[in-house]
Specification:
The protein has helices at about 1-10, 45-60, 80-85, 125-140, 145-150, 200-215, 230-235, and strands at about 15-20, 20-25, 35-40, 65-70, 85-90, 100-105, 115-120, 160-165, 170-180, 180-190, 220-225, 235-240, 245. The protein has about 250 residues and is an alpha+beta fold. Strand 2 and strand 3 (about 35-40) form a beta hairpin.
């Protein structure tokens, strides 16, 4: 499910998706957007040679320098190979981030911690604009999403978006991407000044219950270190540690 989120980002008209043994997304020239490799599937006996051939594109910026390494990556020693070619592991062993999953038959019916929080399923253009503003400020810290390029998401049946209000103020977001009887939880964010008031928990519960009602059996997500406790409380269990590596050209130092 870790690829579905990135495939969804790549659907925007200002983005491009590169398919092959090494897959990545990046913005078209002249546009801003996420740029990262998210799937690597190489034969063990030719992996080093393949990576060597990619080095010129890495150094020139044609190929993204940020690589997400999910557990399905091949070969098994990919991180070791990348480290030998100038990549640095960005993972923090003291503060691990996890890929987590939840059997929706075991949803915890936890009460909302703040009755003043109201949750809306986002369906209108005006509310989607508010959703984007919160995501960009609370989650990304820069305008990664743009209503011009992403509003078409509202017409996609596999996507659902939620916005939490506190006393009428939009403060937090969540979303889900459904694929058959599985779904991933994405874009969980809360504006900094409104954190620790139960908004994220309430949003996740609403999202999970809606997915369960639509026949989804399993929900997955990628948890930041700060959110591990929240998702564990909701019943999610860790299945793999997230690994992110960054290429650092020795010639730039």
């Amino acid at each position: 499910m870790e690829w579905k989120y990135l495939h969804t980002l790549a659907l925007a008209e200002h983005m491009q998706y590169h398919q092959g043994d090494v897959e990545w997304i990046s913005p078209l020239p002249g546009f801003d957007g996420p740029s990262l490799v998210f799937k690597v599937s190489l034969e063990e006996d030719t992996a080093i040679e393949h990576i060597d051939k990619l080095l010129p594109d890495l150094k020139s910026g044609v190929l993204p320098k940020i690589w997400f390494i999910p557990p399905s990556s091949k070969p098994a020693n990919l991180t070791t190979i990348l480290a030998s070619k100038g990549f640095r592991d960005l993972s923090d062993p003291e503060n691990p981030e996890w890929g987590m999953a939840l059997d929706l038959a075991k949803i915890h019916n936890l009460p909302l911690s703040n009755p003043r929080i109201n949750i809306h399923r986002v369906t209108s253009s005006s509310e989607f604009a508010l959703w984007i503003d919160v995501v960009n400020e609370a989650l990304h810290g820069w305008p990664m999403l743009d209503q011009t390029y992403h509003e078409f998401w509202l017409s996609r049946s596999e996507l659902s978006f939620y916005l939490a209000y506190l006393d009428g103020v939009p403060i937090a977001t969540s979303a889900a991407i459904q694929t058959g009887n599985q779904a991933s939880i994405e874009f969980v964010s809360t504006l900094q000044q409104y954190r620790n008031q139960g908004a994220a928990s309430a949003l996740c519960l609403k999202t999970l219950h809606d997915l369960h009602n639509k026949g989804v059996h399993t929900a997955t997500l990628r948890a930041s270190h700060e959110a591990n406790a929240l998702y564990t409380k909701l019943g999610f269990k860790p299945y793999f540690q997230t690994v992110v590596m960054s290429f650092e050209d020795p010639g730039e130092h």
